[in-house]
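User: What would this chain look like folded?
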Amino acid sequence: MADSRRPLLAELIRKWLVLDDRAEPRPPSPLLRKPWREMSWGQNTRTLQYVQEYEPENQDVKHVRILLYGPVGAGKSSFINSVSSTVRRRMAVPALASAKLSEKSFTKKYETHKIKKSRGASKTFYPFVFNDIMGLEQDADCGVRAEDIKLAMSGHVKDGYKFNPVSSLSSSDQGYNPSPSADDKVHVLVCVLSANSTDIDTSVLQKMADIREAASDLGIPQMGVITNIDAACPETEQNLHNVYTSKHLQKKMKVISLALGIPLNCIFPVKNYSHEIELNDDVDTLILSALKNMIDFGDDFIDNL
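Assistant: Here's the prediction, encoded as structure tokens.
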């Protein structure tokens, strides 16, 4: 008798499990089934060689000048350090960066950051440089002024100029460059934002819009770099290969694209080196992808100077 009831009991258990699954549906996966952007993981040697061998064809320009701007704490200086570490194949910190979150900008001066290509008596530098500027702040009298960034794009700001949050640089100031060369001008404008930040203040967005408009008037190509992707997405923190399957990061990048007016294919997510003391191939892949496109965009602009 007991044996005859076993099939019936098994069927009841199966139905109960099905009903239980329906009663408590599993949460949707935070990852897409396939990446929405293709990424050549493991091809760092080829991309690094491309970066190492690049030279501007315009003889009046020695290097692509890349200007980074964005809100305070977005990771501009950390990105410069990460690029330097990646191309030099060792940890490097050419740009001082704050180790703690702050509402005030750590960068105070207009500095040109060169990255060494070789050492010793024959020391040379890579043919691209970064300019890091004071972060944008919501208060009108704090942070870098949009007018100063516009002057920097045209090459009118001398290296080492200390930003004045209260008043913009004028032609009578010592830090003003009256006759900028093609090498002094900015060739690529890159907005740096954190994927882990909350909504950007309206006043900061307006400053960014003014900067973008000025860059458009000058014909300067524009890009976006999204930092802190590991802090913003647990799946990406666990495995950087999830960066383009993460639904959260995909949505974040689309929102940023609309807010900035920068096409999605000109925005690149990266993870900056922070706590690491050794290089990581996957971190380098994302850094090199962003850097290669900066060089390409800048090279196209230089060709038309």
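The mean pLDDT is 87. If you want, I can go into more detail on any region.
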